[in-house]
Amino acid sequence: MFLIRRIFDDVLPLDQRALEQVKAILHSQFQLLDRQKIDRIPELLRYPLKYGARSIVYIAEDHRNTVHGLALLDHDAGLNFCYLDYLVSDRRLAGRGVGGALYDRIRSEALSLGVIGIFFECLPDDPNLSRNPDILKQNRERLRFYESYGARPIANTAYETPVTPGGDNPPYLVFDDLGQGGLLHRDYVKQVIALILDRKYKDICGPDYVKMVLDSVVDDPVRLRPSRYAVPQAVEKRRAAVAANLAKIALVVTDQHEIHHVKSRGYVEAPVRIRSIRNVLDATGIFDPVVPTTFGDSWITAVHNPEYVRYVKKISKQIEPETPLYPYVFPLRNRARPPVELPIRAGYYCMDTFTPISSHAYSAARRAVDCALTGARELLSGRRTAYALVRPPGHHAERGFFGGFCYFNNAAIAAHYLSRFGKVAMLDIDYHHGNGQQDIFYQRRDVLTISIHGHPSFAYPYFSGFADERGEGNGRGYNVNYPLPETINAADYLQALRTALARIRHFGPNYLVVCLGLDTAKGDPTGTWNLESRDFIEIGREIGRLEKPCLVVQEGGYNNRSIGSNARSFFSGLLSGLNHQRNGPTHNHPKQIEFKPLAVVEIPHNTSKE
Q: Do strands 424-428 and 447-454 pair parallel, antiparallel, or not at all (unpaired)?
């Protein structure tokens, strides 16, 4: 079992170790490459503007954080294409799908960037160009693999001409249009080839050689070589399905929420909430269902007090199925002297009188955590957006307290999980203050917590959410509250949201976690605001324009007549915002640029112009 995830830089120790393994793999498999070029990979990630293109690294690693494969992709915004520099997997894992999983992810990444496609080099499958039978066999298998995605060598050019006469294995230039079906026009391809030769082979490809290759590009549009390898129809369908699903929102729905059904009169946090949302979203076609994975308890206890977690688990087992336990004694919290009787101790861990513990509260809350963590893992694997549709909600759960229908802070646990891989911003847009994540991250600066909510003078939880609560110690300035009046209009809300998003942009997170409360809507029994469906479209659009990998975790929202349509509006806007700047130059009108040298690590598959 392995995870595909992106490395943004070498700031975190975990990523530093991963990049050292990346360099070791490249050194071992490409011994003829310049060691300095491989060692420059961390610098490529840190200073993309220095080299004129942005380098993107994906790795395949196991649960011990051992790297078993990698892909290095360069994004050229000027000509609007991606170049695959490396796709390498551990030879010992041949047939385990590492290479295919990596290629699926970089194709998804390239699609999200709005490029025309991916160019890369691949060793030839022509015996006149590859004279070693063993190498020729490997080359054919590699081209068969890429052809299964629709990628084929560019035909009728002199690109694969060796620089040194008689050189063996000169590479083809291969193009994958990512299933978009566009045309490659001659002038555009000439610019791409000139850029590749300048960046990769500046030291060995002289002006005469470059002119010879460019002059050989005569077809307009440029043609790709006809398919040579029969690709089973089932494989083609699977590739298309993978690409389509990766472009969708990963939908992780809790499968154990209905066991936590408190039937007390007036208890609005009911199973129908999930059904109301799911029934509407299933018809949109923009979601890819993902089965939740079970994660270890250590992710919960990293955020919550272990004694508190053990208590919720233990007391849930002692409660009669139809008789939920409501806290009724709230002792002064002397940590050394908690009440002995477990039912009495409920008030020791609770902050209100209307959040009971049911016989299945622990199991349902535990599974909600799994869903949030599964969504977070989808982001690490290259998804742009994931949605954990869960109950019970979590944003009121603090380190050692439950309340507001919340037991474990699903979003905070997922944010902590993601924080190992980069900075995280949490944006809470529930009507009620996100006191849970404020408490959990109040002294940390790697997780920015922002909440837009009703002022605590009239809105639950009443004791937190004030504007002057800014964080402590290292976290000073990294907790931001926007308490709003009891009566506002959509313009007021959007103004606060844009201010919050500006703060997030300044923070520059690698990941965004959104606590989605739909109780800001008109007619919600727990709120006083009147946002309508069209307002949720704009809210989603503004958040999407951050263009950050985004995990959305369901929190409040209790008007079951509108909760589904409001969720649909939010995600429609979110996708619209994510895609608003993704339309780059077209194939028909390539952008003219000045070519600048770029020091990039060597080509994939041990190709050579010699």
A: parallel
Q: What is the pTM of this model?
A: 0.76
Does one domain contain both 389 and 534?
Answer: yes
CATH of the domain at 546: 3.40.800.20
Q: Per residue in 498-538, pLDDT tens?
A: 999 999 999 999 999 999 999 999 999 999 999 999 999 99
Output the pLDDT for position 92: 66
User: At 109, phi and psi to the nearest 5?
Assistant: -60, -45
Beta bridge pairs of residue 172: 122
* Interval 162-198: pLDDT, tens: 988 878 889 999 999 988 878 899 999 999 999 999 9
Residues taking part in catalysis: 396
Q: Give per-residue burial for 86-112: e unless 16+ CB within 10 Å, then b.
A: bbbbbeeeeebebbbbbbbbbbbbbbb
Q: Are residues 106 and 132 in the same domain?
A: no
Dist CA 103 CA 72 (whole Å): 10
Give DSSP secondary structure letters for 526-544: T----B-HHHHHHHHHHHH
Which residues of the chain, if any, have pLDDT below 50? 583-606
Contacts of 140 (CB under 8 A, 6+ apart): 125, 229
Q: What is the dihedral of CA 192, 194, 195, 197, to 10 degrees?
A: 120
Q: What is the rounded CA–CA span in Å between residue 481 and residue 432?
A: 11
The answer to the question of residue 593 being in a domain is no
Q: What strands lie across the sheet with 118-122, from one edge to the other? A: 3-7, 54-61, 67-76, 81-89, 118-122, 172-176, 152-153
Sheet holding 424-428, edge to edge: 287-289, 249-253, 385-389, 550-554, 511-516, 424-428, 447-454, 479-484
Please check whether residue 472 lies inside any domain of the structure.
yes
- Which sign does the torsion angle of CA 186, 187, 192, 194 carry? positive
> What per-residue confidence (pLDDT) applies to 609?
62
Instruction: State whether 197 and 107 are in the same domain.
Output: no
**Which pLDDT score, from 0 to 100, does residue 77 have?**
87
DSSP label at residue 324 = P
